[in-house]
Amino acid sequence: MGLDEYEALRLIDLEGLQQEQAAVQMGVARTTVQAIYNTARRKLTDCLVNGRLLRLQGGEVEVCERRAYCPRAGCCLQRSCDKERPED
User: Fold this and answer.
1) d(Cα 68, Cα 34) in Å, to the nearest integer?
2) Are 19 and 34 in contact (CB under 8 A)?
3) 16-36, pLDDT tens digit by residue?
4) Which domains does the chain have, with CATH numbers?
5) What is the distance between the alpha carbons of residues 74 and 62, in angstroms, rounded to a whole number?
6) Residue 9 near residue 44, CB atoms below 8 Å
7) Residue 45 vs residues 2, 22, 38, 65: alpha-carbon distances, Å
8) Given Cys at both, which of 5, 55, 64, 84 links 76, Cβ 3.0 to 4.6 Å?
């Protein structure tokens, strides 16, 4: 499974975003998110039903330095985080 497929599943199924919202977050068209999401669901279902190994691969990943402090950590995956670090 590619990282774009993983991200589509995370945004739509875990974060509860609509496809339009996920498209904005990922920087692609809604129809692209729909296609990516459908492919990801088929791959995930195949792994669950047939006991296959799920491997995430491909793509460049950037981790937000403020991730531990961000109340919506997922917001940082595609955009700059403007959240301030809480006072210690």
Assistant:
1) 30
2) yes
3) 999 999 999 999 999 999 999
4) 3-62 (1.10.10)
5) 12
6) yes
7) 15, 21, 11, 33
8) 64
